[in-house]
Amino acid sequence: xxxxxxxxxxxxxxxxxxxxxxxxxxxxxxxxxxxxxxxxxxxxxxxxxxxxxxxxxxxxxxxxxxxxxxxxxxxxxxxxxxxxxxxxxxxxxxxxxxxxxxxxxxxxxxxxxxxxxxxxxxxxxxxxxxxxxxxxxxxxxxxxxxxxxxxxxxxxxxxxxxxxxxxxxxxxxxxxxxxxxxxxxxxxxx
Length: 190
Prior knowledge:
Blueprint: H1 5-10, H2 16-24, H3 28-50, H4 53-68, H5 80-102, H6 109-114, H7 126-133, H8 137-147, H9 153-160, H10 164-180, H11 185-188
């Protein structure tokens, strides 16, 4: 019976808003449901930023600790992915900086910020990673949030803290670059 409990919690039909209200009301099991609902997404996103499985698991813990500290009194005013994205991104950047300090010192602090997110999407082929590597980090980030994480343009703008017009521009330029490149042209022009 205990083995089925996580499966049942993962299938909880309550919305994120209902779960947040339940957590605010003291329902610890509702937090577990949110955790089960978003843990794989958080780990995948953290891995895209860090390229390291161990760091991704650490970031998972830190992200949900960050969320837990918001309770009681937390009000979800956006999609949960939109709320969690900046936390995962910032924790990933911090993890990269920390890892770089323990390495040979080849990278300076200013260079760490410029390291693009991992060039591959977990579970993808090397070809997809190579195609994504053609894009700059800002364009790649918007493209992945839109088509991998399925966020709306408004949610991406909110998650990144940038204007909606900037999101549209970055997505447009990313798609144009992919349409123009010989390796990806066939994906857009049958």
